[in-house]
Amino acid sequence: MIHSVLIIDDSQQERNEIKNVLEATGLFDAFYEAPDGLKGFKLMLSNPPDLILCDLVMPDFDGFKFLRLKKARQDYDNIPVLMVTGRDDMNDKIRGLEEGAQDYVLKPFNPLELVARVKAHLRIKLLQDELKQVNEKLETLSNTDPLTGLYNRRYFFNILEREFERTKRYNRSLSLLMVDIDFFKSVNDKCGHLVGDKVLTVVARVLKTDLRKIDSCARYGGEEFVILLPETDIIGAESVGNRYLTEIREQDLSDICKEIKTTTVSVGIVCLPDDAIKTTDVFLKAADDALYAAKKSGRNKLVVYNNH
What we know:
Rossmann fold; Alpha-Beta Plaits; five-stranded parallel beta sheet; five-stranded mixed beta sheet; 10 helices
């Protein structure tokens, strides 16, 4: 992993001294320099560093202004700032810390002290980054079905509630597809549950292919899946559903189990706006009713919910 540092100081000599000291430590692979706070802020946005050393007193755009700008961007909160100043003024130190700096070093600085403080704050930053990655991974795992990689049922309900309310509030379109693998029990009976799992992953791969970023695909339970399509009317939903019917039917499964060469699915669709659908429970029930109708009428087909 490449680590970088940003040095903000109006004096080229000061920047060189800091850089020379830090280069000798081997802590950083990249060094960025700026002569004032505004240029330093722009550099931070384009090349977010692991640590910033910033002079407080600079013409035009000083360190305090830089700290205020950085403080306004919460997505950069995790980057520590060490003030490097020649003014041994307690009010300046307190003000700098209140504006968002983590520490300060007085000029002329002691190289050993500078390195010690840099190491301490860099270590904290890297530990925070690692913790953030672990938390993101745990969040992903908690929201994902481990077999198919799709969203799980619990997380899907969160998305559905949010999208349903937004759709109702602004009178927009929202389509829900409920997809069920036909005769899936016979797949498990003939070929075993491991083969059944492989079939589930094949179907899941088809379902999530070509979806937009705003769409959501989840394993609803067993061999059943749901796909939520915001800003999509019934024509668009039928197009997606018919693509699923065709592409899943065309999947060659003979290498998975000789007993089954292909599989098919049934699809139920419901779309908002619909004055009769006032809750997510009713919305899901409508999709389920349409799916039941598709299976009852022969499977391998699509049925659109109609409350009339």
